[in-house]
Amino acid sequence: MDWISPRALNRLGMLNMNRRNVDYIARYNERSSYPLVDNKLKTKLAVAEYDVKTPKLLQVVKQQHEISRFREIAEGLAGFAIKPAKGSGGKGITVITGRDGDSFVKASGARVGASVLERHLTNILAGLYSLAGTPDVAIVEDLVESAPSLARYSHQGVPDIRIIVFQGYPVMAMLRLATTDSDGKANLHQGAVGVGLDLCTGKSLNAVQFNRPIKLHPDTGLPLENIQIEAWDEMLEMASRCFEATGLGYMGVDLVVDAQHGPQLLELNARPGLAIQMANGRGLLPRLRAVERLKRPHFTPRERANYAMKNFASL
Amino acid sequence: MTSPSRLPFYIAVFLLITAGISLAIWRNVELGIPWLTGEQHPVWMVEARVDFNGSNQPIVASLNVPEHPPGFRILTEQAASPGYGFSIIDKAGSRRAEWTKREVAGPQTLYFKAQFIPDPGAEQTPPAQPPRTRRLFWEEPQATAVREILAQAEARSSTPESMTRELIRLMQPDTRVQNTTLLVSEDNYLQLLVDMLNHSGIPARTADGLKLEDARRRQQLTPFLQIYNGEKWLTLNPKTAAQGIPEDLLLWRQGSESLLDVVGGDNSEVSFSILRQTIPALQLSAMQSDGNGLGFLSFYELPIEEQSMFRMLLLLPLGALVVAFMRIVIGIRTSGTFMPVLIAVAFVQTTLVPGLVAFLSVVAIGLAMRGYLSSLNLLLVSRISALIILVIFITAGLSIFGYQMGFNTGMTVTFFPMVIIAWTIERMSILWEEEGGQEVLVQGSGSLFVAICAYLLMSAPLAGHLTFNFPELHFSILGLILLMGQYTGYKLSELRRFTPMKVYD
Questions:
Q1: Facing A23 at nearest CB: one of B377, B488, B498
Q2: pTM across the whole model
Q3: Would you call B11 exposed, middle or buried from its count of C-beta atoms within 10 A (0-12, 13-18, 19+)?
Q4: Based on the domain organization, do B275 and B315 belong to the same domain?
Q5: Is the per-residue pLDDT at B422 higher than 50?
Q6: Judgement on whether residues B334 and B359 belong to the same structural domain of the protein
Q7: How confident is the model at residue B178 (pLDDT cuts 50, 70, 90)?
């Protein structure tokens, strides 16, 4: 058994679960704003007013009888994603990348018939994937086509970028790459690779999988050093804008880089995980406290992103 | 980073915790509710036996019984006397047990039993109005003798107490002078003393005491002298003039004129048997609580059925405390926040090993069946509903199977909350599909571990005793849980989780 002493953790400024819940989530996140992030449909609508782009909404399935319409819409589509509006942790998301005759091709390469997708929609409506098992709605979105420069690092799935935004300041970021262990999902605790990103440049720092440092992607074998995220300052500003859209003081912003449309918001998270610290090899606390100490906060997302790029990389 | 707004919170928590503890201490002191389960208290069981001969007449037998004996409290009273009417009559400062019967012939025996608890704090209540003295008319030459002795004693004393002491000393055989010899005879000594004190203006009376010794039979009462010093009655030994009541002495009769009156019978006598018993301190305080003003704070007055329900309910906060500690400070992952507590409650009823076996088999069989259900692609509500019915089938099956095989423990399965088990199975099954078997194992064993810890705490006799008899301790538990809700330090599990950070330190 290997242990790290609490004092060492304090020196590193590691944010822990209890402190995150009490000092940050409970203090800075209005309970009333939660539905905004727990429901992807509401998120989409809320951030749209603040110029944050999201994948194009194709259909919202709210009632069982609307499922029949889904088949008509799906006929004309090459790729799309079905998501439960209140799902969390990537549960219940089905990505269709193309067609093969009458059947649909899933991201994993499996082929499924339309009836399987309809049953999936039924399950979503019944609340199978929603947080508390409450009835849900399903949203059908345009497929995100990841920019090839990033997509090659990921095994299946779309690599996404998680940015922790505190009081509108981006404080830490990481790139999440799906693996076979994570079954194409980008959740670190399911086995995805987390790559810490330098807040100033958007360059990769360290990489971890299952909390262990790694150098190469376990599936693709590509080195995880020297990854460069493009349009980095634009992404930080976009993440920062989500603060105005939701009012949540402490949140995780998940972005993707679409090959055609550039950075897009995938979802927001009011309870972002702590593993991002391990991917960065840095604790969150020094940066969070720096923001809390600010006497005159910056008013525009641009200023906040600039401040973060200038100051936090060294903290 | 404590902001000032948290100070009231900490004060409130502090108040809660101290309120709980101090209320418990107060009740321990006031009501005598013991801290530990096995505590025993001595109790004196005194049995008065009244014998007389009936002579074919209606009979009234009236025995003086103690009212507020100094140094003791009366716990129970009962009379055993078949065929007699019985009642206890309170009348003008004396309490009498009265037996009545229309036709009585031949030797009769009546019993009166009472239990006394030694209580050094028990004082007799002072009389509402000061007693008056009775002046006797003395014939000569006694009158002169009395006057001279009283004058002699009065000259050497200053207070009623010292006056009485001097008088007793003067009346003793070794100090007797002619005057006293004239007055004192064998059997009138005490009455004479009382009369002389009354004559001198000090209210005095006789009392009867019973020396308490274990396993004595046929004991008689010893006479004592009581004088009134202006505030309260003082008890003195009429021979030695020693003031006060010995610890092992129970004043059976004070104030009333006679110990036993039997109308319609003859040859009456009363004798006493004494037995020292011990009863659990808890039972004692429960018996006393009805009469006490603080009794309403406890559960003893509820019907037994509700009491046993509360016994269970009051254990729940302990379980919640364990869960809070395990999750917040240790960082053990459980499936369902309070599922472990409910499982622990079931364990309390089934005992650990049979409960564990039953629980694991129900969940295992349920998981296997749930596998089939998930392939049916049912809607959530009907899937859970189906699962609940399946769980009931499984428990019924296990019970019947166990019973046929001769294991009565199979029946204990029914103590588990069906709906909770169904949800546990559902959650485990989803967890299995989404995160794999390892996570099921981690969360499942975490839940069981917490449940077992909660069970061990809840099934400790002391825990049951304290939570039920000192329900105010739950304030303290509440305070602790609130305090834990403010714990922002590292969980034990995080010290392990963040280990790879060592390289950056």
A1: B488
A2: 0.70
A3: exposed
A4: no
A5: yes
A6: yes
A7: low
Q: How far apart are CA B146 and CA B129, in angstroms?
A: 28
Alpha-carbon span A34 to B152, nearest angstrom: 98
- From B249, B272, B297, the end of a domain falls on B297
A198 exposed, middle or buried (CB, 10 Å; 0-12, 13-18, 19+)? middle
Residue A43, Cβ density class (10 Å: 0-12 exposed, 13-18 middle, ≥19 buried): buried
B373: left (phi over 0), alpha (psi -120 to 50) or beta: alpha
Task: Give contacts of A128 with chain B, Cβ < 8 Å.
Answer: 380
What tens digit of pLDDT does each residue of B232-245 get?
788 888 877 788 88
Measured between CB atoms, which of B379, B490, B500 is closest to A126? B379
A208 burial (CB, 10 Å; 0-12 / 13-18 / 19+) is buried
Distance separating alpha carbons of residues A11 and A209, to the nearest angstrom:
23
- Chains A and B form CB pairs within 8 A to the count of 85
The 10s digit of each residue's pLDDT in A213-227 is 888 888 888 888 888
Residues ≥6 apart with Cβ < 8 Å to A4: B495, B496, B498, B499, B501, B502, B505
pLDDT of A143 higher than 90: no
Tokens of B261: 């009156």
Q: Residue B63 — φ and ψ, nearest 5°?
A: -115, 130
Q: How far is CA B291 from CA A26, A93, B280, B295, B322, in A?
A: 50, 68, 19, 7, 37
User: Which residue segment(s) compose the domain that B254 sits in?
Assistant: 39-132+203-297
Whole-angstrom distance between the N-terminal and C-terminal Cα of chain B? 23
> DSSP readout, B233-267?
EEEE-TTT--BS--TTEEEEEESSS-SEEEESEEE
Check B495 against A9: CB less than 8 A apart: yes
Please give the Cα distance from A151 to A145 (Å, whole number).
9
Interface test mutation site (partner B, options A18, A179, A187, max chain B beta carbons within 10 A): A18
For tokens 């103690």, the residue is B66
Q: Do A18 and B488 touch (CB under 8 A)?
A: yes
Nearest by Cα to A139 from A267, A8, A287? A267
Contact of B486 with chain A, judged by CB distance below 8 Å, is answered with: yes
Facing residues of A173 across strands?
A: A163, A197
User: Pick the residue with more confidence: B290 or A114?
Assistant: A114
ipTM value for the complex: 0.80
**Domains: count for chain B:** 2
Residues B250 and B224 occupy one common structural domain: yes
Is residue A165 predicted with pLDDT exceeding 90? Answer: yes
Together in a domain, B267 and B320: no
Q: Tell me the CATH number for domain A6-53+147-314.
A: 3.30.470.20
Q: What is the token pair recorded at A199?
A: 């807040």
CA atoms of B50 and B66, how far apart (whole Å): 15
**In-domain check, residue B459:** yes
Strand order of the β-sheet with A103-106 is A57-61, A138-142, A80-84, A94-100, A103-106, A111-112
Under the banding of pLDDT at 50, 70 and 90, the label for residue B297 is: low
Average pLDDT of the segment spanning B262-270: 84
What CATH architecture is A57-142? Answer: 2-Layer Sandwich (3.30)
Residue A51, classed as helix, strand or coil, is coil
Token pair, residue B417, equals 């909350």
pLDDT per residue as tens digits for the range B377-393 = 677 778 888 888 988 88
In a domain, B114, yes or no: yes
DSSP string, A116-171: HHHHHHHHHHHTSSBTTS----EEEEEPP-B-HHHHTTSSSS--EEEEEEETTEEE
Give the model's pLDDT for residue B1. Answer: 43
Same domain membership, residue B415 and residue B356: yes
Mention every residue, 6+ apart, whose C-beta is less than 8 A from residue B397. Answer: none
